[in-house]
Every structure is written in C-alpha cells, then in structure tokens.
Specification:
There is one protein chain. By secondary structure, this protein is an alpha+beta fold. It has one domain (about 1-220): 3-Layer(aba) Sandwich (Pyrimidine Nucleoside Phosphorylase, Chain A, domain 2), CATH 3.40.1030.10. It is built from 11 helices and 4 strands. A 4-stranded mixed beta sheet has the order 1-2-3-4. The radius of gyration is 18 Å and the shape is globular. One of its GO terms (cellular component) is cytosol. GO terms for molecular function: anthranilate phosphoribosyltransferase activity. This is Anthranilate phosphoribosyltransferase.
C-alpha cells in the first residue's frame, strides 16, 4: 500500500469510486478498512509488529470484490492447502502459490509450489522451476527491496522497460494471474510460457505504464466523469 501511495495513487477513496475505477481503468485497489471497518483498529498494531500476521492469509479470502479468478500467494506452507480448499468451495478458478524460499508468490530464486483450483476441486501440487520457462535463477539480494519510495522507483523502472531479476519475477507472477483465469495442471508450464510473452509485450509496448498513468489520474477524482 505504501508503494502505491508513493506512486501517486490516492487509495482512501469512497467505496463507489473503487468499483468505478475497476470499470474505467481495468484495475483498482480495495483498501481494507473502507470495506471492513473493524480492521481500522488492527492496522496500527500490524504496522508496529512489522511481521506477517493472520491477516496476510485472510486478506485474499475477504476481498469484497469476490473475483471469480484469483492468483493467491500464501507464505505459511501449512496454510496453502487450506486457502486452496476455501477457494475451491467458492467455485471459480485460482492458482494458490508459494515459493520454496518462503515468498508468498512465485519466486525466481528457486522452485515454487502451485495448487490449481477449478471445478470445485483442488488439484495435485505442481512444482515449478522458473528455469524451465527460460527465466534465469535470481538471488535473494537481487530481489530485496528498500523503503516505499525506493520500491516505487523500481516499479517505474520496470514499467519503463528496465530488464533484470525484478522484471523477471514481476512478469512471472503477472503471467500466473492470466493463467489463473483458466488453469490446467497438464498445460501449466506451456500456458505460463505463453502468458509470459503477453506480459512482456505489455511492458515493452508501454501499455502497462499507460494503465498506471490512467489509474493515477482516475484516483484523483472522487466520482466518475459525467
């Protein structure tokens, strides 16, 4: 959230405006305390703790938009199957992922585990090696961020076309979000490879940067233009 604010996004918007931006721009951000007022009391404590809490696992499950297709990252290994099971009961499709380095996303430093959710079922666990997709193995230091302002600068550099380990992991997870719309265990690697190409083109063409610019512009207004 702090990174998005440093990029110039106003996240404390009325609920109606949040929904409008999803339609206008194709992207939006659901600021939890706006939709779940009780979380206002937990937010200061979470920031003071500075470590992951149960809310990190719960957040994707209490998304007010209830998206039918989701990419969900889960850091605690014991919770991956639990989250996948919840999403399966809701219907829709999802990829639940965890990096074997402990990241709550697909990682590029080592292998990752993926659970495919579709047709009300949780499929078998699939192991993904990013090198099988042509992505070089990174190190933890390659991906380590800084403060919010530094990370916002990194975001803009990636969207401006800067290549390297950060771009690689961003494209990999963006590709997984696309595949989550219609995931299959048998074709997962092939589908990710194709989606990676689409994501790279979105960045290289400037389309991704354009979406961010339109999102920032839309977030400066409190209601839809008449």
């Amino acid at each position: 959230m702090d990174v998005l604010e440093c990029l110039g996004l106003n996240l404390d918007l009325p609920v109606e405006r949040v929904a409008q931006m999803a339609e206008e721009v194709g992207i939006t951000f659901c600021f939890a305390p706006k939709f779940h007022p009780g979380l206002r009391h937990a937010s200061p404590t979470r920031r003071e703790l500075g470590v992951p809490t149960a809310f990190n696992v719960l957040a994707p499950l209490i998304n007010p938009a209830r998206p039918p297709h989701q990419l969900v990252g889960v850091a605690p290994s014991k919770m991956t199957r639990v989250v996948a099971g919840v999403l399966a009961r809701r219907g829709g499709t999802a990829l639940v992922v965890r990096g074997d380095d402990g990241m709550d996303k697909l990682t590029t430093t080592t292998t990752s585990q993926i659970w495919v959710v579709r047709d009300g079922q949780v499929g078998r666990r699939v192991q993904l090696d990013p090198r099988d997709l042509g992505i070089p193995q990174a190190t933890q230091s390659d991906l380590r961020g800084g403060n919010a302002r530094e990370n916002a600068t990194t975001v803009r550099r990636v969207l401006d076309g800067e290549r390297g380990p950060v771009r690689d992991i961003v494209l990999l997870n963006a590709a997984a979000a696309i595949v989550a719309m219609n995931p299959t265990e048998e074709c997962l690697s092939q589908d990710l490879t194709e989606a990676l190409a689409h994501c790279a083109e979105a960045v290289n063409s400037g389309a991704a940067a354009n979406v961010l610019a339109r999102w920032i512009a839309a977030a400066t207004t409190t209601s839809a233009p008449r």
